């Protein structure tokens, strides 16, 4: 078992005692950091940054050089999977991610192969290995993937969507075809996350960014079910340690109980529910990760501290909390405010663990 | 008391017996209708359509000529209020609504006047009067306004926003200034809705489109509180009838109990909660309006009927339900599908009222 200098995150995810609440941020390696923007410019474009292990490693480590973060998270994109399936990912200015080919017919679905993570997605695994080597046991590394439903929205719509008309039309009218697509994606994500674990990821998170656009019934049938399938197929131990799994559905606060029943170790929580209420509903079944409104970081340092205190107080005493924002950090946040945020979590949380 | 040929909506909103469940659609006068697009083109631009009572009346009545809808809703825009306050509303292609002037400082807030509905917003009241005359008692007319919080997001950001960084930064750092702005808006909305009622609106709805972007605590303090203030200030009777008030917070299914306590008659419900669960939580305190996923209308007629049945079954037997989509109808919906939807609600709901 590799010794970690700081194993707070893993301890918290397994509900073991910690001195202070661990904290990291979704999208912590990102555009709010000038050094990220510099590396991104050097790379030329976003996908080159993702596809070049040394550059992905560089940006992964940048926030750790600035802040006392308790985890690193692999720098990558959820759309590496459909890209590896041959859909031709590209980024167009102002429009976000786009695919050259969409997946809408039976023929489209049948032509999809399950990519070999150490072949088509080897650049991701190489990034994981490089980051682990460079981290050298400072903090754990989190791997991640998009959820099958979330990936399917991009693959069917051909990119980002505001209202999901095409993918939901397919879901309503051709549920069997949608299930076929989601099953392929679930198997792909399982292989992908297992390969990340094998390459060195010490915890993994599934991002279900668009599960909250579904009704409760459709969420259970078309999103949650496939995340459960993935959780059941993951290698949960590596290097002598348990590898915790975190599920996050943005807008999913209505269904936390069902999410907790998937066999995951922790739930990501957005800021539309009080942690006190989430804890009341979930009890000790899983750990809760979250949930400060990312817009808090636009406020003054004093106000940021007050909000950190409010989130800590809402969760209350005892183990089972990983501090995070309720969604990814925004690009226009002042990096100095991030330091106040991270340091406040450590300073103010000690009394909740006595 | 003016006799309505079809008073199902008002009866349902007051929990009186109905033969079938009444149905209308948010944004029912809109871009999915070719006749709307023709009138809009004739008007030249969107605001001319809003500002010309005869044209606003024309588009308001268009969906009623096609479908057996149980209500008309005033064609207008929630941003008429900040426009009347002097912010200079305009629409730029691809960017949506924009304001020439934003409201960010104490000076900006102090300069805001409360518009006189029969003066700066007279075109809206004239539209209400014209529509009532042309409706001639066929179905009731619903008036509406944006909520103070929702209006404030546009006024502070200067238009639509993805992450509400500026308005939330102001909320966190200058809560007193934000409250001052929201109080001005609450008084303006109260006057505006009372004038619509006086002009002939037979029910009113408050659209809190962006309340769901707030944490529960901030929602109560910065959105719900001001909707409660408005509800308390409304004339609830006109022409010998009670004027019901409907509150709708998109993404608000976590806070239905608090919304029901505002004194409103009904809650708009989006599709992220089962009506059965919403009814269990709210009981008979208020009527529920909703909540079919608007994307259902992309599906086949057969599937649309199945979904209508599912929503009716979820609410169950008895009074207290107004059928609607969970959000506005999308622009690319086939108008023939809308007919299937409306007719299915009437055909399939009779047995729930026996």
Number of helices of chain A: 15
Main pleated-sheet profile of chain A: 7 strands, parallel
Task: Quickly name the level 1 CATH class of chain A.
Answer: Alpha Beta
The strand order across the widest sheet of chain A is 1-4-5-8-9-10-11
Q: Which runs of chain A of at least 5 residues are low in confidence (pLDDT < 50)?
A: none
Query: How much strand content do the residues of chain A show?
Result: 5-15%
The oligomeric status of these chains comes to homodimer
Cα radius of gyration of chain A in angstroms:
19 Å
Q: Count of DSSP E strands of chain A?
A: 11
CATH topological fold name of chain A = TIM Barrel
Q: Give the overall shape of chain A, derived from the CA principal axes.
A: globular
Characteristic key phrases:
354 residues; TIM Barrel; homodimer; seven-stranded parallel β-sheet; alpha/beta; 47% helix; globular; two-stranded antiparallel sheet
Provide a brief overview of the structure:
Chain A has helices at 8-13, 34-43, 46-51, 53-66, 80-87, 106-110, 122-135, 148-157, 165-173, 175-199, 216-233, 256-260, 275-282, 301-315, 335-349, and strands spanning 72-73, 89-92, 96-99, 141-146, 203-208, 237-238, 241-242, 245-249, 266-268, 287-292, 321-325.
